[in-house]
Amino acid sequence: MAHRLISTVLIASVMAFSLSTSATAATKAGAKCQKIGVKSVVGAKTFTCIKSGKKLVWNKGVVKSTKVDPVAPTGFNDLEANFSGVSYTAWKKSREKILASSSASIPLEILVGENTKLNNKNPEYAISQVNKLYVGSILPKNIVLLAFSFQDRDWAITKMEQIVPSAVSAWIKDVACPSADNCLGGGSFHNLSNKTSLIVITTGIDPNNVSNATSGTLEAHEYTHSIQQSSADALRPGVNLLKSPWPPNWYWEGLANFSQHAAIYSDSFEKYSQFRKETSGGIFNNSTWNAKYIEGYFQTNLTNDWDLQYPRWRQYDLGAMLVEILVAIKGPDSAMQVFSESINGGGFESAFQRIYGSSFQSVLPIIARTIALQLGN
Q: Does the structure show a pLDDT above 90 at 21?
């Protein structure tokens, strides 16, 4: 009797296992299903019964993401603890601002030299993305993109003098394009009288940073400089080291560098992170850039001694990481507001205090430690 009972239980268990296995095996892409809209979970995939022609079949299935967003910092008090969430939060807040902004027409005129071919075939996208990122700021009324190659330098100089008479057009030959093999990069100029932004783009390509010429980040970077000047209603002084009330060089360039990646790669955090790191020139996992060194770099009154002690070109990548922190805490509008209020309200530290509720010097050690943690230093 006991023997028969055990056998019955074993047979029932085997039958149940067989039924379960058959049901699971039946749920696969292209297999028949019974009722449209019914879902079946197999492993990490969720299959849905759909109609294909005259048949009901399981679709290809969707893998459920198990990825959890990193914890976002809420202020300087928890910034260091949540350093791993800074970059993602800044990107996400920028993306949300861009998506929430309407696609207004852009007053953009593109001038291309006769012997010039654009590296980026869609510069309008870069301008539009940055416009959306900073809707609410005082934007230029007119935008002119002037693109030229070495062969078209003289033409570009003439155009620049017509559009922004106050600008030093010799910049084109002396800085932007001194020779055929050294003709790359861009610049931003502003005509205060008619509120016209001039973005000057050369068409040489840096072999170490090809994407900057083709992706739109170059145009986005220079147009951010246009908005900085437009929102402040002031022209950037033609000096190497900016003085108060202008924000320091690392904020001027850092804001533009952050904006170029946030605007162009708003649809992909992976790409944002990739190009953010690729353009950071070796400061990741570099013990030189520890918290103490970073804190020393972020001086607000830049002098020749500072210029001798620190590599100024870090104003781009390191400056962008500081701006990224501010955007993570209070959004992209706050970062541009710091710029405009600096010039019109008593300098960088005064503007920082008003917008973020803390003095810059009091939170600088926290900012420096947070960046060092992000760099792996």
A: no
